[in-house]
Structures are given as C-alpha cells and as structure tokens.
C-alpha cells in the first residue's frame, strides 16, 4: 500500500497545482464540452439523462468534471468517451482493486458509502498526464 499512498500524495499535489491556473481551467471547460459532445454521439443522449448514476467522462487524459460533489450513496459511472485511448480507475482510499482497462464506450461504476474527499487516478495516465480526479462525498 505504500506505493499507492505515495502516488496519491503526488496526485494531490498535482491537483492543487492544476487548480491554480485559470487559463488551464478555461481549457478544461472547453475540453469537457467536447467530452460531452462525444458522449452524446456515442450514447444518443446527454450524460445528465442517465438515471441513478452520476457520470464522469474520461477524455483526452482528463476526467470531466475533474471534481465532483455528491451525497453519500451516490453511484458514479466513469465512461470512456475517447475514440482510441483506454483508461482505468484507481480508487485508492476505497481499497478496491484497479478497474480493468476501459476501452472506448466502456464504463466502470462505484458507489460511495463513506463521506470525505476521495482522490482517484487513471492507472496508465495519472503520472505522465496528471489524469487525476476527485469525488467529494457529503454526509
Ligand atoms: Cu487514462
């Protein structure tokens, strides 16, 4: 688990650094709009239409949205809306194994039952591309 803890420390530092760049946030907003377009192309409806889950898209080495606030008991569905790249989900604080590689249009779900900020990573891209996200789980 020591390796996982050290990658999470690096992830948190990266997340803090990313949040300090306003230009970066504007770029991310544009990128996430593209991610939503890709989602609609793939599934025929907006991601907000999914029932019973909150969707996070994986697109061009980013999570969209990168930070999410949800109540306890929420199921998050990560969806790969890239055309070629595969991604994975590492939920280190939850102690679950890394997901399988998710190819385009594939999904992974997790239900958050404990409150707190849960940082997560894309296994193949967190280090090289800073592909890192957070779910803030409320009481
Ligand atoms: Cu990835």
From TrEMBL:
Q: Signal sequence span per UniProt?
A: 1-23
**Gene3D superfamilies per the UniProt record, alphabetical:** Cupredoxins - blue copper proteins
Question: SUPFAM superfamilies from the entry?
Answer: Cupredoxins
Query: Which InterPro entries does the record associate with it?
Result: BlueCu_1, Cupredoxin
Keyword list (alphabetical) reads: Copper, Metal-binding, Signal
Domain spans labelled Blue (type 1) copper: 59-137
Please report the name of this protein according to its UniProt entry.
Plastocyanin/azurin family copper-binding protein
């Amino acid at each position: 688990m020591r390796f996982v803890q050290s990658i999470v420390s690096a992830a948190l530092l990266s997340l803090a650094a990313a949040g300090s760049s306003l230009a970066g946030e504007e770029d991310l907003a544009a990128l996430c709009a593209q991610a939503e377009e890709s989602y609609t192309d793939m599934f025929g409806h907006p991601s907000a239409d999914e029932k019973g889950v909150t969707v996070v898209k994986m697109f061009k080495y980013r999570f969209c949205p990168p930070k999410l606030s949800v109540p306890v008991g929420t199921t998050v569905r990560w969806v790969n809306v890239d055309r070629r790249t595969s991604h994975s989900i590492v939920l280190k604080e939850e102690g679950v194994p890394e997901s399988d590689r998710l190819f385009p249009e594939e999904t992974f779900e997790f239900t958050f039952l404990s409150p707190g900020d849960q940082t997560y990573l894309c296994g193949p891209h967190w280090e090289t591309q800073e592909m890192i996200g957070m779910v803030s789980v409320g009481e």
